[in-house]
Amino acid sequence: MAHKIVFFDIDGTLLDQNKRLPIGARKAIQELKERKIPIVIATGRAPFMFKPLLMDLGIDSFISFNGQFVSCQNERIYENPIDLEVLERLVSQSKDGDHPMVFLNEDEGRTTHDRHPHVTKSMDDLKLSYPLHDPEFYKRRPIYQALLYCEKGEKELAYRSTYNDFDFIRWHRYSMDVLPKYGSKAIGIQKMIDHLGYLKEDVVAFGDGLNDLEMLEFAGTGVAMGNGKEEAKRSADFVTKAVDDDGIRYGLKKLDLIT
Fold it and tell me: Partner of 4 at 20 to 30 A CA spacing, among 38, 44, 139, 249?
């Protein structure tokens, strides 16, 4: 059996557009487990957002916040919180522009706006509840990722040009992930395989989005979903079928990781 370790993005990769796990994907993951091939979640989500999925699939290792918080077999092995001083400057600018923010740590999220339609829409699309209102939350807890609600255009460009300490990754029409500069799922994967003793060529990674580009390029074998962004497909070694067309199972079979 090949000495492989498999990393899966969640949204658009394991979960379809309705945030459901296809039966074929579930069976494929079970077969990987039966073959003793390690499985790791690699997502932009916060851990509390996908804990039910981990429990459902019996997975105990993950890369969250696009690489800023890594846990291996229920042990924290890497953390990279956002610098508080720089975050305070961004919060101040977002207030001036009336752009909501959501602050995320491993356990919970809080928002600067009690009710805002853009935050509501994005959370509804993720099938998540609206975060509690606490504009000062970021001052009391380490923040690994923030969400900035600003549509494409000049205002987005203003944020990008002002903050060299952040990477802004658009994941929704209304929202961007805010991450420490150069943080990525690829860095999280490197931390994980160093901890477990795997090599880069052992890594198989499945993804679909803009926040998966570094991961797909880094992996020994990067697999883009058929429903993925064109940039993800160009970054991958091959493109499998869409998530709702049994893409996970098809891709794993092509790699001879399952039968």
Answer: 44
